[in-house]
Amino acid sequence: MSAAFRKAAKARQRPHRERAQPAARTKLGLLEKKKDYRLRAHDYHKKQNALRALQKKALDKNPDEFYFKMIRAEVKDGVHVIKQPKDEITPEQVKLMRTQDIKYIEMKRVAEAKKIERLKAELHLLDAAGSGAGRHLFFVDTEREVQEFDIAAHLDTVPELVDRVYNRPTIATLQREAVKGPTDPAHLKKLAQQRKNQYDLLRQRIEREKAMFVISQKIQTRKDLLDKTHKVKVKKETTTGPAIYKFKFQRKR
Asked: Where is the composition biased (Basic residues) (predicted)?
């Protein structure tokens, strides 16, 4: 084919134009191009194939099938959600473990233990109200002795001091010397309140010492888990104790 013939054929070609939209169909929108139809058809067939695959999978599913993810998932408002396991550690313990090391925790725990011992020595384990939680039993032989029983006479003290469980002098002691210490009811009530506050402080320190002991155990457990020795978890971690692992026995040189 000569160059002149190719030039003449090219001159006779007309540029391709999209088909015009009829005036009666302008309300229906623009005409769809051929490539747009192909894309829409490809997307439609792709979705149909996916639906057929899901239907086949549902028909082939074993009704007795079980896997552990079933018990950790649920449907909320039509959305499949996986349940997150509850954290068995308090936020305070997490914060303390991330910022402090086991030596610091152990040092603070020992300091709390010493303060607890000093408080116990000062309070002598007395009740804050001035009377023990237990009961003092007296044994007699007859019902008549029960009716005529006098606690003050039996304890050999004055009736005003019967309710005391400590510092209860006898009548002979009172005759030799005066009662030592405050005797004013208002002053005694103030001292009882102070003693109660001291017992509350002792209880708080005991709880703090226990919490620090648990934290130090959990940190030590995490340090032990860094070892490559084979281990099996025996008990899960709780808010009151660390997880328990059983390590494979390995003889060291």
From this structure: 7-17
